[in-house]
Every structure is written in structure tokens, then in C-alpha cells.
């Protein structure tokens, strides 16, 4: 019988937690999930009296969720020993004349369990909770006539599985005939070896070029290495002997489009017959239609082979050699975490990504955009990724193959080397994936760059300046003042906000900086109920008076609406220690350009079709400037947070990049950020003394905005940098059309000067790079004694951050790790106290004492011995 699944432990646990109503009269007797809107649920009243359906409703458990979503509130009644059919309003289903029926919003899909509730108490259910992905897709289920009993847990033995769009039983209670059991046998069949199917190339030699399946079916025998009831829907088999060649895989995936029968378990010998298919790059044997398989003896599952990447091959090429096989990652595999366990929008599930030898680096962090080197690195990154998966979607806050995942001792960091994990190699969503078959512990991670409790420069130099993006620190949850947009991008509850603040404070205390530039702090002014005051109060509570901070406040004339720095919900801020450094004049604001383009301001053409642009109104946050005095020297610090890479500007629309990553890999609104960099450079041209530009520039190390502020020279490169069009500044037209930048403003990238180009403070989509910068003029650069990207955030799991929305029961920690998603950057500077040169003492004729001695001479000698001299 098709489609039978075993009652899972998870289902039992979920059902045990639900209120139950045993032996209810009304139950689900048929489930139809067919083509398009052909969806139906049939109910049966097994009692002897009419049942009023008021209070009954149908719900669904969507895509493995354990919480129900309402679908249909039932009406009228259902006669004794009778059925009632609920149809989707657009279903193309004809019912027998006189059938008791109604329409309702049946929007369940394959993978959704359907429940019947009475007064919000579960009465009956079809499908496990949580439900395996695709469980009921294109299927009709009819309940066995001899088992018409409601149940709050799903038992597949109660149901008969029928083909897609089978409607003949709806409206009646006629017994459905189960499909005849398979009579397929391998006896006498000519067997094809798995390694001959896989071959030594990227696709099977049995699939002709230009085709996606073999001309004929093959018969294959192998040992089951793993089941996949959810991710792939089938099972993996492996040749018992193999051919001993490292170039051909001994394993292959068998596609069923549903969970395999319980008789197929790891270690079982199975013979299958079907066509070989190349399904979007995955080599598999497709038996979903006729399900030709024969189960043999049960023995041991195939042992995992140690995975390695040979000299001269890419990770993708190495994985292709073992596609379908069970492998083990060991120390020799040299596989590093390049993205910690988090959400993957391609497969729409949580997973982790590994790369060979080292985490991936963002190409534009180390190479000029559009350069041959950047293109080559991007191509290399694409074939240097292995996704680590669990079969079923992980519960929030859990890593299925790492059960001791926790914020204190069981963490995962980018750069960790992973060992002792076993799994089968599959291919889906354009990537190779290891489907884990065992569990690992913290000891299986080799910590290449482990956590540290403080940055290396925390006590270096005479002062330290830090840049810290604090990931939307809002105090709305505790009654903070409003921001200009009256929106809260941060913690939604007081406990979340307190946890976030505690983590940030612990990081700031360890950094021991004398000036701190902040990004992504709520833009709600400077009053007692402002976010910056809230943070400073909590920070100073952990410090002595000598270590205490104040915040920099701009003058009223520079405040938007008399309160804010600009009009965004978030802003930049600055903290300083009065005991270490003194303000030198008032703080200033550098306004950044806005982009305002009316509808139709620009056109684009593709395939002869001309389109006019929609309107664009884009903004970016202003920069904050404060000069300081330290030991008679002037230091000017500028804190910045330029436009993000996510939302597009008119230049992206013009290049057809409004829904995709631009080809130069610099993200959206790059020219808009260049405009801001130009304004910033011009504003700082005439500033006296040392200048330090810090903050989140939303540009990696070699990208245009950083190049404009530093060493760009158009005469030495073919790479052209342009500002944005349709920009205004302070309400006046700034640039109608984008202009070409000829020369940068000469600041020095302090981080890359000291550590090289491959530094990082941020991780996105498995690639590392620096968005958080420290740029200085020549006099400032000469004073740098150390700089550190303190890796407490970029390489950590975002599941440890303050938010609880997607973390389930995961216990949070108050430690500094995952205090934000950006690493703080700390710069140690030398500002020694002035050296006092003693003034020479003029010789004086000593006054004679009565005994002929010299009192004056003796006094001078004594002062000299004590080291006391008249100071200049």
C-alpha cells in the first residue's frame, strides 16, 4: 500500500500535549489533494443521531508546524451514519447527486496535516504533526471501512492511498480498493552497477547530452545507506563492493516522492528498477510512478568513506566524485565553517555551510570590483560550498546533528574545522548537501580562531577609539522616547531589550575604549528616556568614575525637528570618557545626499522594449563629527553609517538589478554611497589635526565608497567610479547626473595597512569582509599602535542574539558574543603626555656660612639629588 508511514515519536509527543476528545462521532473519512484547486475533505458521522456541526472546524498544520491554522468553520449538521463533503470553491470535482456538501477555504497543500476540531479541541487528524515535507502531495487518502474511529494521532494503517485526482469515493462510504502489492522482482534481471551509472563526469553517461533521463530503465542492487523522508523523499543506496576507483561514486539516490516503506532501513539490501535522471544536477533513479523495488536481506549499513579534496580539484569536483555516497569529514577533509547554522532562503530551512581549507572571503573585500581577480574569486567561492542539512526541518533554536548546541560551550564559529560528521552527499537547490546521519559534540569542532574575552588592543596605546554597530538598540520596550518614524526595529519585549543591553555593555567594558562611535542606535534624542542615555546609564553602572562615559550631543540648531540626528529611525552616536579626553568645540552634523527621482525620470531598454522608471526617494543617515583635545593635540572623529546594500536606487533599476545582486558585487545603491563618500571627503578636506573616520560604510574594503575616501586614482585603473544621479543636499540640487570621480581623498585604511586586505567584521551569505572601517589622515595613521576587529559577532550564530522570535527554547547568554551582527573595531593610538625639559640653572656665587661653608651650594646639591628643578 502506498504512502504508509510509521507513527513517529515526535507525533506522539505533540499529540500528548494536545487536548483530546476520544471516540467522537464525527471524523475525517477522505482527504483529496489534487491538481490545482482540487481539494476536498469528507467527514463521516459514525454515531446513531444527527450531529450539529456548530463549533466544529477544519484546520491545517502547515509545512511541519505544530500550531494549527484555521481553514473552515463548519455549518449545518451531518446525519447519522452519513457523510458530508467540504470542497474548495474552485474545485473541478463532480459529486454524486444528493451529496451533502459545502464549500470552504481549503488551502492545505502536500505537507500539511489536516485536523478536525470541536470547540478548539482536536477530534481527528490526518497526517503526522509535524508533517513530513510533501507527505500528502497529489494524493487521495480514504479511511479503511473497518477502522472508522477518530484519532488525535495519525496512523497510516487506517488509510488507503489512491492516485492523484481520485474522486470516485467522495460522497459515499464505499470501500476503496488498495493498489495491488508490487510483484516486481530482480530475479533474472540484468544488473547495472551504480558506479557505471554515476560515471566519472558531472552527469551520468547513461543520460544522453541534451536529455534529462536515460532511454531505458536500469536494474540496480545496493545497500541502503540513509533514508530521506523529507528533504529528498526517497533513500540512498550504495554498491556493496564498489569499483575501487576514486573517480566514480559507488552510491546513488532513489527517488520515491514520499517516505520509503518501513522495510527500507539503513543496512537493507534493495533492488530497484527505473530510469536514470539528472534532476537539476542530481543523479538519481526515479521509481516514483511504478515503485519497482524488492527488499532483500538486512545487514550493516555501509561504512562512511573519509572525504578529501585532491590536489588540483575544487570542492565541487570532489563532492561530485562521491555524490550519493556516505562520507565522513575528518581532520584530513579540512572543511571549515563558512556560515554558521542559520536560515537558507533557497531551501527555506536552517542549515550550515562549509568550505574547503578556509572560510570564503567577499571578492570585493580583497579585489577591485569588476577586476579579473574579483570575478575569479567569486567563481571559486561558488564551487567551494557544502551545505550541512538535517532531513527534517530543524525546530527553532536546535541544530539536529549537534544536540548540545548552546551559547556558552556548544557554539559554532565561522572558521571552525568540522570533524567526525557523517552523511550522504546529495544535490539540490544548485548546491551539494551533506545529509547528516550521526550527531557530533563540541569536541568535534577544531577551534581555529576561538573566542577571546577582550580585544588584543584593550590596554594598548594612550587612548583607544572603537566603532560598534549595536544592531538596532531601541528602548521602546521600556518606554523610551519616540523616533521620527515612530517605529521599533529592535527588541519587542523588556527582557529582550535588557539582554541586548547587557551583552552590549559587557562588550564595551571589555573593549576599554575612550571614544566609542555607535551605529544603529534608536534616533530618539538625548533626553532621560533616550536610548543613548539608557545605554550610558547601564554602562556606567559597571564602571568607576574614572572610567565613566558621557555621550556627545549635537547643538539644537542641527537637530531635526529640534530632537534628532536626521529623520531615520536609527542614527549614529558617540560616547567618550571625560577623564581621558576632552571635547574641543561643539559637535557637528555632516548631512548626506538624498535621491529624489520622479516617475519616468529615466528609461531603460531590453529586447526592444523601452520602460520608464518608477519614482525613487532614497535617504541615508547623516554623519556625526566631534573634535577632541588630548595632551594638547587635536583629534577629530567622524562616525558614519552609509546606505545599506539591500534596497535599490534608480541606478539599480537602470541596470535591471532591482531584484538581483549587481554584477560588480557591490550591492544595491553603490553610487548613492559614493555620493555620500564624496560629500564626506569634501567636508573633511580642511579639518586641522588628526582625522579618524569610523563606522559602518556598508562597503567592503575595495569597494567604491572606501576607494573614494582613500587612494582611488582614475589614471591607474580602468574601473570607473560614479556618484548617483538625481541627488539633493540640504534641500538643494546636488547632482542632476552622476559625476565621475577622478581622485580619492587620501585617507589611509588603517586596518588593511596593518593587517592586509583580508580583514573582516561582518559575514553575509557565507562570505567575510569589512563593512566597519577605520580611515585616518597621515598624521593620525602615524599614531596607530594597534587595531583589532574583535570577532565576537560576525563569526557567531545569530541564534544567540537577543531576539527570541526564531530561537524556540534555546537558552540565551549575557556574554558579549552575538551582542550584534557586526564586530567592533578598536584602534589604539599614541598620544603621550608632553615631555618636560628641565631648564638649566644659572651658576650663582655661593653665600658663605659663618664656618666658611656654602649654604646655597649645599641646598642646590640637595635639590639636585632629589631631582627637583624649576620647571619651564
Describe this structure in words.
A hairpin with a 2-residue loop joins strand 36 and strand 37. The longest helix is centred in the middle third of the chain and has 18 residues, at 494-511. The chain is globular and about 120 Å long. It is α+β, with helices and mostly antiparallel strands and 872 residues long. The protein has 13 helices and 49 strands. It has a seven-stranded mixed beta sheet with strand order 19-20-26-27-24-22-21, covered by helices on one side.
* pLDDT < 50 runs, ≥5 residues: 1-23, 848-872
End-to-end separation in angstroms reads: 102 Å
Number of strands: 49
Largest sheet features: 7 strands, mixed
- Taking Cα atoms only, what radius of gyration do you get, to the nearest Å? 35 Å
Shape: globular
Strand content: 25-35%
> If helices are DSSP runs of H or I spanning 4 or more residues, what is the number of helices?
13
Structure classification:
alpha+beta
Query: For the largest beta sheet, what order do the strands appear in spatially?
Result: 19-20-26-27-24-22-21
Helix content: 10-25%
Mean pLDDT: 91
Amino acid at each position: 500500500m502506498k504512502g504508509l508511514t510509521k507513527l513517529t515519536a515526535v507525533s506522539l509527543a505533540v499529540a500528548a500535549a494536545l487536548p483530546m476528545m476520544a471516540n467522537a462521532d464525527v471524523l475525517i473519512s477522505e482527504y483529496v489533494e489534487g491538481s490545482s484547486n482540487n481539494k476536498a475533505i469528507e467527514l463521516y458521522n459514525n454515531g446513531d443521531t444527527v450531529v450539529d456541526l456548530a463549533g466544529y472546524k477544519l484546520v491545517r498544520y502547515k509545512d511541519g508546524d505544530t500550531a494549527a491554522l484555521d481553514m473552515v468553520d463548519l455549518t449545518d449538521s451531518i446525519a447519522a451514519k452519513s457523510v458530508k463533503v467540504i470542497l474548495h470553491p474552485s474545485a473541478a470535482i463532480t459529486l454524486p447527486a444528493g451529496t451533502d456538501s459545502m464549500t470552504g477555504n481549503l488551502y492545505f497543500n502536500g505537507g500539511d496535516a489536516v485536523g478536525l476540531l470541536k470547540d478548539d479541541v482536536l477530534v481527528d487528524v490526518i497526517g503526522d504533526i509535524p508533517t513530513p515535507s510533501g507527505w500528502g502531495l497529489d494524493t487521495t487518502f480514504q479511511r479503511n471501512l473497518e477502522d472508522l474511529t477518530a484519532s488525535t494521532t495519525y496512523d497510516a494503517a487506517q488509510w488507503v492511498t489512491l492516485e492523484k485526482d481520485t474522486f470516485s469515493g467522495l460522497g459515499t462510504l464505499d470501500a476503496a480498493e488498495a493498489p495491488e502489492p508490487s510483484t516486481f522482482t530482480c530475479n533474472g534481471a540484468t544488473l547495472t552497477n551504480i558506479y557505471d551509472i554515476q560515471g566519472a563526469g558531472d552527469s551520468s553517461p547513461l543520460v544522453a547530452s541534451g536529455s534529462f533521463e536515460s532511454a531505458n530503465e536500469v536494474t540496480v542492487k545496493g545497500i541502503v545507506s540513509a533514508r530521506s523522508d523529507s528533504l529528498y523523499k526517497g533513500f540512498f543506496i550504495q554498491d556493496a563492493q564498489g569499483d575501487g576507483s576514486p573517480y566514480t561514486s559507488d552510491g546513488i539516490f532513489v527517488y520515491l516522492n514520499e517516505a520509503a516503506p518501513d522495510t527500507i532501513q539503513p543496512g537493507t539490501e534493495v533492488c530497484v528498477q527505473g530510469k536514470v535522471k539528472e534532476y537539476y544536477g542530481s543523479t538519481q533513479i526515479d521509481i516514483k510512478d511504478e515503485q519497482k523495488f524488492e527488499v532483500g536481506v538486512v545487514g550493516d549499513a555501509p561504512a562512511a568513506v573519509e572525504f578529501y579534496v585532491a590536489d588540483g580539484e575544487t570542492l565541487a569536483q570532489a563532492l561530485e566524485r562521491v555524490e550519493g555516497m556516505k562520507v565522513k569529514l575528518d581532520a584530513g577533509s579540512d572543511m571549515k565553517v563558512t556560515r554558521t547554522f542559520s536560515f537558507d532562503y533557497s531551501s527555506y530551512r536552517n542549515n550550515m555551510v562549509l568550505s574547503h581549507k578556509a572560510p570564503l572571503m567577499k571578492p570585493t573585500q580583497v579585489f577591485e570590483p569588476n577586476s579579473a581577480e574579483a570575478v575569479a574569486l567569486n567563481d571559486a567561492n561558488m564551487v567551494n560550498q557544502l551545505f550541512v542539512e538535517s532531513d527534517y526541518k530543524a525546530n527553532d533554536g536546535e541544530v539536529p546533528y549537534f544536540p548540545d548546541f548552546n551559547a556558552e560551550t556548544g557554539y559554532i564559529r565561522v572558521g571552525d574545522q568540522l570533524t567526525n560528521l557523517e552523511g550522504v552527499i546529495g544535490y539540490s537547490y544548485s548546491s551539494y548537501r551533506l545529509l547528516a546521519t550521526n550527531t557530533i559534540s563540541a569536541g568535534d569542532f577544531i577551534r581555529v580562531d576561538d573566542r577571546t574575552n577582550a580585544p588584543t588592543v584593550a590596554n594598548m596605546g594612550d587612548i583607544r577609539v572603537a566603532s560598534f554597530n549595536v544592531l538596532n538598540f531601541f528602548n521602546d520596550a521600556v518606554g523610551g522616547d519616540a523616533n521620527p518614524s515612530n517605529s521599533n526595529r529592535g527588541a519587542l519585549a523588556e527582557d529582550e531589550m535588557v539582554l541586548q543591553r547587557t551583552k552590549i555593555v559587557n562588550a564595551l567594558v571589555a573593549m576599554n575604549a575612550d571614544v566609542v562611535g555607535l551605529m544603529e542606535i534608536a534616533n530618539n534624542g538625548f533626553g532621560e528616556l533616550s536610548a543613548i542615555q539608557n545605554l550610558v546609564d547601564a554602562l556606567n553602572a559597571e564602571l568607576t568614575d574614572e572610567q565613566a562615559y558621557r555621550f556627545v550631543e549635537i547643538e539644537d540648531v542641527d537637530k531635526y525637528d529640534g530632537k534628532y540626528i536626521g529623520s531615520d529611525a536609527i542614527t549614529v552616536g558617540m560616547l567618550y570618557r571625560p577623564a581621558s579626553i576632552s571635547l574641543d568645540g561643539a559637535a557637528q552634523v555632516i548631512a548626506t545626499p538624498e535621491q529624489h527621482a520622479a516617475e519616468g525620470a529615466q528609461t531603460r531598454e531590453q529586447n526592444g522594449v523601452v520602460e520608464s522608471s518608477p519614482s525613487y526617494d532614497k535617504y541615508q543617515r547623516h554623519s556625526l563629527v566631534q573634535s577632541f583635545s588630548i595632551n594638547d593635540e587635536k583629534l577629530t572623529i567622524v562616525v558614519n553609517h552609509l546606505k545599506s546594500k539591500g534596497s535599490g536606487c534608480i541606478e539599480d533599476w537602470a541596470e535591471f538589478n532591482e531584484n538581483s545582486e549587481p554584477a560588480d558585487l557591490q550591492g544595491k545603491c553603490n553610487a548613492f554611497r559614493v555620493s555620500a563618500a564624496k560629500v564626506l571627503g569634501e567636508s573633511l578636506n580642511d579639518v586641522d589635526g588628526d582625522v579618524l573616520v569610523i563606522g559602518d560604510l556598508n562597503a567592503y574594503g575595495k569597494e567604491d565608497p572606501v576607494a573614494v575616501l582613500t587612494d582611488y586614482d582614475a589614471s591607474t585603473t580602468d574601473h570607473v567610479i560614479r556618484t548617483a544621479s538625481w541627488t539633493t543636499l540640504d534641500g538643494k540640487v546636488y547632482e542632476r547626473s552622476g559625476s565621475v570621480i577622478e581622485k580619492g581623498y587620501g585617507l589611509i585604511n588603517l586596518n588593511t595597512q596593518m593587517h592586509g586586505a583580508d580583514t573582516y567584521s561582518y559575514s553575509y551569505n557565507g562570505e567575510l569582509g569589512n563593512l566597519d572601517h577605520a580611515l585616518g589622515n597621515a598624521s593620525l595613521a602615524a599614531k596607530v599602535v594597534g587595531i583589532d576587529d574583535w570577532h565576537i559577532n560576525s563569526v557567531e550564530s545569530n541564534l544567540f542574539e537577543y531576539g527570541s522570535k526564531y530561537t524556540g527554547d534555546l537558552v540565551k547568554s549575557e556574554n558579549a558574543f552575538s551582542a550584534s551582527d557586526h564586530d567592533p573595531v578598536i584602534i589604539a593610538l599614541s598620544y603621550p603626555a608632553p615631555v618636560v625639559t628641565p631648564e638649566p640653572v644659572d651658576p650663582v656665587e655661593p653665600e658663605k656660612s659663618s664656618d666658611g661653608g656654602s649654604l646655597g651650594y649645599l641646598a642646590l646639591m640637595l635639590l639636585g639629588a632629589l631631582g627637583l628643578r624649576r620647571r619651564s
